[in-house]
Design a protein that fits this description.
single chain, 511 residues, alpha/beta, Rossmann fold, 2 domains, eleven-stranded mixed β-sheet, 15% strand, disordered N terminus, hydrolase
């Protein structure tokens, strides 16, 4: 780790070298900063400075595979920070992912920073965004997460890569036996926490305020946010949290360490590795191939007793999570009715048959909770079972300890039938419609984006989404209506959906 004196020396030397390159530089002087590891040179465009591919930990390769992230390794001279670093090892799982990174590598622990070009009179709030992708895919280089639009709002924005899938979440008895604390798995969560520690030590160099950090994410990124709120490694490293569609409080609790270790042993056997040493010696590409075989487990967050000390639901019920303001919600069509009904038509008979199949003697209870138009009820039940109930539970428990704001995003993308699909809000919330070339965005889309981004930016600045020119958004402990429905005309409403979620609560506690 560099001392302040070393920082100053590195920065002075880097600036001198850059200026000595010649006077024929157009625009501002080279943007060189000193961070842990050495000096970096970024770029500037349209009022925003950007620094891409900045290492925040040592490459987790070789003996460091399946170990906690280690301190970044110093580099000589000025490191270019103009291109995204490699993305984490992953299979091509999701068709909507567009990457600007050069490819996949185990050496993936890089982050990207966007900050206003003009110097600020005071330290700026900070947004750290964790990408989605089921903890198995995704990357901070995706255009929908680009931080330039938030930087133009006066926010220092970061995206963070973290280890995924078998590289990020494998538990194994030999891994658990290695450390002082008998635990394994959750390396991806450790990476995220390491990035937050890097932010605390380095973000002032970019104009950011380490006391005003908001963590945010969508889907797996939202799961990650809810997990970091119970991760002791991340305690005190952020002041606010945003979750878009997902939390660790869903109908399927994270596996115990013993359960996850059994998955790890089965994986090692499938890979032909009789020991941890043999498993570490296998090429990364071979491990990825084995992980993609039919029947292999989906590696995810583990209740390991260390990073996740106890079942997350217990932590939230006891109010032991980080007591920071939370803004969270979901979209109107996280799943379609066909996810529940299959090829059957959306009729009362087909819906009743699905309830009977899923809930048996509790089918009548489910029917009362979802007693409305079948296409909508089937859509909602499919969405609730997958990701919505867990998001609601997070909101409902957290509101007891800190200000909490709930949204419901209903704007479909141009040309789409039905409602707002899973992940469909990201470009709107982060001001990145133009980064998605698939859709012909219109004035209404831009109006929705301006509204949602402004709510998010206000929350990042203050912990409260409200501000001039916006419909007032009460916290969820305010008497109804208190849910902000975000669309062309955004306003609060009372969704009257508690019966649905209480039905799932009873399912969680039923014998």
């Amino acid at each position: 780790m560099m001392t302040k004196t070393a920082y100053a020396g590195a920065l002075a030397g880097a600036l001198a070298a850059a200026l000595a390159a010649g006077p024929a530089l157009a625009g501002p002087a080279p943007i060189v900063l000193a961070v842990e590891g050495g000096a970096i040179e970024g770029t500037y465009a349209d009022g925003v400075r950007s620094f891409k591919g900045v290492p925040f930990a040592a490459p987790p390769v070789g003996a460091l595979r399946w170990k906690a992230p280690q301190p970044v390794r110093p580099w000589p001279g000025v490191r270019p920070a103009k291109d995204f670093g490699p993305r984490a090892m992953q299979l091509p799982l999701f068709a909507d992912m567009v990457f600007r990174s050069p490819g996949i590598e185990e050496d993936c622990l890089y982050l990207n920073v966007w900050t206003p070009l003009a110097p600020a009179s005071k330290k700026l709030p900070v947004l750290v965004y964790f990408h989605g992708g089921g903890l198995a895919a995704g990357d901070g280089s995706e255009p929908r997460y680009d931080g330039a639009a938030m930087a133009r709002q006066g926010i220092v924005a970061l995206t963070v890569n973290y280890r995924l899938g078998v590289f990020g979440f494998l538990a194994h008895p030999e891994l658990s036996a290695e450390g002082a604390v008998r635990a394994s798995g959750n390396y991806g969560l450790m990476d995220q926490a390491a990035a937050l520690r890097w932010v605390q030590r380095n973000i002032a160099a970019f104009g950011g305020d380490p006391a005003q950090v908001t963590i945010a994410g969508e889907s797996a990124g939202s799961y990650s946010v809810s997990a970091q709120m119970v991760n002791a490694q991340a305690r005190g490293l952020f002041a606010r949290a945003i979750g878009e569609s997902g939390s660790v409080l869903g109908l399927e609790a994270p596996p115990t360490l013993a359960e996850a270790e059994q998955q790890g042993v089965a994986f090692a056997s499938a890979a032909g590795a009789a020991s941890l040493a043999a498993l570490r010696a296998l090429p990364a590409a071979q491990l990825l191939e084995v992980a993609g075989r039919p029947g292999m487990p989906w590696f995810s967050i583990v209740t390991d007793g260390a990073v996740i000390e106890r079942p997350p639901l217990e932590t939230y019920r006891r109010g032991l999570q980080a007591r920071v303001p939370l803004l969270a919600g979901w979209n109107s069509q996280e799943m379609g009715a066909d996810a529940l009904l299959g090829q059957a038509p959306a009729t009362k008979e087909a819906f009743a048959a699905a309830l009977e199949r899923l809930y048996g003697d509790r089918a009548a209870d489910a029917a009362r909770a979802y007693d409305y138009d079948v296409p909508d009820a089937a859509r909602d039940l499919a969405s609730d079972r997958w990701i919505v109930y867990g998001t609601w539970k997070w909101i409902d428990l957290h509101r007891r300890v800190a200000p909490t704001y709930r949204y419901y995003f209903t704007r479909p993308r141009p040309g789409a039938a039905g409602g707002a699909v899973h992940s469909g809000e990201i470009e709107y919330a982060l001001g990145n419609l133009d980064g998605n070339k698939v859709y012909r965005w219109n004035d209404d889309d831009r109006r929705v984006s301006a509204t949602m981004q402004t709510y998010f930016a206000n929350f990042i600045r203050t912990g409260n989404p409200n501000g001039a020119g916006l419909a007032h958004w009460p916290s969820v402990d305010h008497p109804a209506p208190n849910v902000m429905r975000i669309d062309v005309a955004s306003d609060v409403y009372n969704p009257r959906d508690r019966a649905r979620f209480e039905f799932h609560d009873r399912q969680n506690t039923a014998p």
